[in-house]
């Protein structure tokens, strides 16, 4: 498999990872979890589920995150304050985005958190070979969980590197080895290869 995903007989995908790759993926997933933040506390056993649902909705954020990486993970639904359809008041767009965010961001955070946790649990469950590497096999819902997490990791790294276009990532590939951004660029490109081959496999 050589570091890229390949199909499993009967469905799913598999990839051979060495010890360093496993460590990098786990570390990145844990950092993503820390960035997204803790989940909502579990409701009490005797709590009214309908009341808890409405309470959760009311507490949803209405403003985009100030952190550029989180803003990339949780973008405005209507393109942000500078976007505008012809004839639509920018203030109206901002209000629509705020309302959409209030009803959706908490659920989106939960899904992204679950995707990242699935990556961590998958890696923790690996049985290492003699060289410390292992073959990761993804079946059931795990391939889609991994796709979501790989995409979120790439978006986060792209925000940190200020990558907005493919041309910019191509320029970053030519960075000298001593550039402090080089390891992050290599991780970004590697994650892209994993994501692409996982999509092709599915």
UniProtKB/TrEMBL annotation:
Q: Which Pfam families match?
A: DUF2017 (PF09438)
Name of the protein this chain belongs to: DUF2017 domain-containing protein
Which organism is this entry from? Streptomyces venezuelae
């Amino acid at each position: 498999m050589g570091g890229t995903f390949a199909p499993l007989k009967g469905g799913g995908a598999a990839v051979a990872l060495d010890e360093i790759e496993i460590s990098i993926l786990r570390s990145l997933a844990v950092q993503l979890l820390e960035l997204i933040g803790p989940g909502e506390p579990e409701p009490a056993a005797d709590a009214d589920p309908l009341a808890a649902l409405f309470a959760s909705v009311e507490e949803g954020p209405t403003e985009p995150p100030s952190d550029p990486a989180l803003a990339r993970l949780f973008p405005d639904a209507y393109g942000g304050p500078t976007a505008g359809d012809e004839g639509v008041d920018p203030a109206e767009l901002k209000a629509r985005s705020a309302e959409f965010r209030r009803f959706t961001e908490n659920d989106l955070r939960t899904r992204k958190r679950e995707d990242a946790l699935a990556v961590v649990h998958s890696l923790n469950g690996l049985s290492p070979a003699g060289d410390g590497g292992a073959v990761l096999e993804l079946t059931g819902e795990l391939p889609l969980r991994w796709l979501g997490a790989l995409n979120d990791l790439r978006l986060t790294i792209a925000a940190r590197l200020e990558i907005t276009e493919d041309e910019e990532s191509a320029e970053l590939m030519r960075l000298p080895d001593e550039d402090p951004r080089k390891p992050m660029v290599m991780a970004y490109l590697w994650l892209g290869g994993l994501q692409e081959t996982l999509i092709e496999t599915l």
